[in-house]
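Our collaborator T.R. sent over the components below with a one-line note: 'Predict the complex.' Nothing else. No constraints on interfaces, no templates requested, no preferences about which chain binds where. So this is a plain run: every listed entity goes in together, and whatever single assembly comes back becomes the starting point for the next discussion.
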Amino acid sequence: MGASPTTLRLTLHVWRQASRDLPGAFEVHHLEGISVDMSFLEMLDVLNEGLTSQGREPFCFDHDCREGICGMCSLVINGQVHGPDQEITTCQLHMRHFADGDTIVVEPFRARALPVVRDLVVDRSAFDRIIAEGGYISTDAGSAPEGNALPISTAAADEAMDAAACIGCAGCVAACPNASAMLFTAAKVSHLAQLPQGEPERERRVLAMVERMDREGFGGCTNERECQAACPKGISVAHIARLNREFLRSSVLGRS
Amino acid sequence: MSPTADRRLDGRCPSGEMASRWTRHKFDLDLINPANRRRFHIVVVGTGLAGASAAASLAEMGYRVSALCIQDSPRRAHSIAAQGGINAAKAYRNDGDSVHRLFYDTVKGGDFRARESNVHRLAEVSNQIIDQCVALGVPFAREYGGTLANRSFGGAQVARTFYARGQTGQQLLLGAYGALMRQVHAGRVTLLPRREMVELVQVGGVARGIIARNLISGEYERHAADAVLLCTGGYGNVFRLSTNAQASNVTASWRCHRRGAFFANPCYTQIHPTCIPVSGDHQSKLTLMSESLRNDGRVWVPSLAGDERPPSDIPEGERDYYLERRYPSFGNLVPRDVASRAAKRVCDDGFGVGATGTAVYLDFADAIGRDSRAAVEGRYGNLFQMYEMITGEDPYRVPMRIFPAVHYTMGGLWVDYNLQTTIPGLFALGEANFSDHGANRLGASALMQGLADGTFVIPATITAHLAGRTVEPVGPDAPAFGEAEAAARERDERILSVRGGSTVSTLHRELGLCLWNQVGMSRTEQGLREAIGRVRDLRERFWNDVRVPGEANHLNPSLEHAGRLADFLEFAELLATDALQREESCGGHFREEHQTGEGEALRNDEAFCHVAAWEHDEGGAVRHEEPLSFEEVHLVTRSYK
Amino acid sequence: MGRCHVLIWLRRTFGSSIGSKALMACTGLVLIGFLFAHLGGNLLLFADADGAAFDAYATALEHSPLLPLAEAGLALLFCAHIVLGVRVQRANREARETAYRVRRTHGARTPGSRTMVATGLVILLFLVAHLYDFRLCRPEGDSLALIVRERLASPSGLVLYGAGVLALGLHLTHALRSALHTLGLHHPRYEALVDRASFLLGFVLGLAFLSFPLVFFLGGAA
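Returned assembly:
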């Protein structure tokens, strides 16, 4: 128990942009009495409450579950996706990670494929379009065989689950020096490639998803692994290697 | 409010032998030729487990579907936050489980306030749900032999819960989302993200579409349809602080209620006992920690009211392990509602701990001493980590502080056996309806219900609805759309025009506090009457003093929040009124006037063995009753002494 | 029809982000092989004082009927690697139109990974100068060993060749791990090993090539 303060004074530089087509700029705001127990988004709530009371427009930012699972919150905080802590989302970041008097720069995720909608809100529909190309197993309701008919080793199930844990926040894109969506795409391809249910569509899936990923305007992977380091769910770049393998195998040896 | 009307509601459940009701009912329902299904357009509002699975299943059958979601992607719906698992009567563990036992447990767990026919159907399709999810690639936990693993959950005597780490809801939702995106790709589903339903449109008394606000552009959009499915979740955020996501709201349901859909049992709200307590006014959300913590943690408060010493300085003799003291046989493992009320009672009496005095300790010192720190870490490592991340305290050294929080709402739009509301053509699925959990929901049953409704029930029943009538084409130019759009637009303009002095958050916080204190886990007649008055005052203040910056023609979260709060302020009165009228204690509804000498809930089966369904009326909601009869499961009183 | 199919396939496979990266990885790996061969030849410079061994090797190479083929192959490899690199880099740049105001790494980037493009460009410039020195504009008839020693002993030689091979070393620290990853050769068990091997490769090759300008500069042309 030291003399660490229970409230903070902060200077915020927050990105303001009225719409996709208009230029944006940083706005500077000063906050006082920010409790160290607040989450980062609660701190932004306080900022917005203050702005509203002054008759000014609050900042728009995405958020929903506020417990790190929905993938809605985004933000680049002082140059780091989801802030300085490891394996959490912005909503799970707490103000005790900051010091009294700190200056915090809050930016939206930046990538051509994730255009800013307003302030800190970006459009991540490119991810939905990548999934729509094949990030699923084509089974109609009612046609499923008995669940235990297909044994799956714990290792395969565990590894598939590791990949499936992706929350689609796009933090990987934001953190990647090339704004690449490889980790996101890889997570889904890898999840389904490791399960026997995914086998019938394995080749078609990876080719279609990669093609869509490229068409959306994401960058390519240069194996810098920033995505893995920034991922709130700790998804490994091993899945990117698997995606590469799946893609090359399907391209070179595939039947389609 | 006028008391009970004499009109009795009929759930239109099939009769005859319970086990074959659903099968026979499906046979009796009319069908539509596959080639003709594309003539029908169905609007699905919400893309959680119920909505995504319904939209996907209906599109697979050949219907044209529009799916709306409030977030930027269907994958973010709040089903994603469910941690524990999903129940099914597979009986893989050879432990005597069966469809009948799951049915029995659910009726009993619901404190005999659910329809037997519905619950039996739920138990029946539970097995198909698991098969379907496995086929969709949900990475359920496996045994070493490769078969599906199970665990016992929420005090069940059998291991029937399927799970995917602590992220079962997420994995199931992503499975349903995948199925939905496949249909989007096939062109059978039109996906409409960042839309909020703001009005229901009826033509000739039948639901024929909705008005949705495009949250990005602010436009009011007209979506004409042959049927409307509400899959919009629960209303827990009426309490402001709950474990629900921020966007969860009652607006879609409430807009439909105002246009004629009855609202059933709003007073049934489930409180979860092991949440991280409120740390201050800034709090926006309460985080749930798995109930499994109570398997090893011991709940206590200081014996001395207002004792402000740190927990380590309080000797064993000055601690009150009140659950163990009051419920010697169940101890710390008493059901959710009992544990929650006990915590509230000790805090109300001044024994609460922490800065706000609204928390109790959950202490793992004994478990660590008995089984080693590593063993405790193995069981609860991720939960301890989460606790430390949020509170900044190390629960291996300092006891956790916990407090109950609103978690799930059993009430919802009244639906018949076909999931149709009192408005023909309007269906409600998942948490948005009231149907399967009675007064209290069992753990790992919410996911089951969402998928059952969406994947297996609605495809059968909506077909019968559509087959049963001649469809007159209704386009978005119909006068009813114009009227509904004008109403929605006018409402937002009215909110924006107030430009008063109170922010939406402030008013919502006041509403939540009022409800939590007087309509929360323990209710009294006087408290409820006060709450109703207070809610009316707040409503008036809202319309006279709310301040919403910006305009309606752009992304404006304050305006969205204000619209939702306006509906919560109307809904809150109904919730309190329902709680006031239900003169008994059952499941998630506890009236202090109705308890046993030991403080247990006291049901009144003579007078209240029915569903209360409320009809909207500007002069005051009208209460209708749907009597409940129990043919298979006999009414008994539970006891945890 | 068949040819059309093949073209479509080529375009689809190697026009994609992963395919073009895989080509870069393959060309890069072969070029690493070339570097080892190049280093082996160069080491002959240290074999004797008068450079006879090196000259004999150079003469043998020059008279080999396979030389034009090898040179053409090498040129193709280099060109492919460079063209693909430029293309990938341009696409990656375009993928983020607005830069972050503040950028802080999450800790995964290495000096090598960060500077792949810069070191690649330096290597390209160095390559041009290197070819100019010893392949395109070398004086006729002289001992190649002598020419090399003289060039490397000069201050400009030290600077040019020192910078060139250091850039090469840095480039290589990220090259091997990146190439293997791109080709899908990855296993958690060997990840750390490959990372270390990659670093070692860059370090060793860089130092080995650096030894020539350093030795000749410090020791003088004799």
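Summary for T.R.: Chains B and C do not touch (no CB pair under 8 Å).
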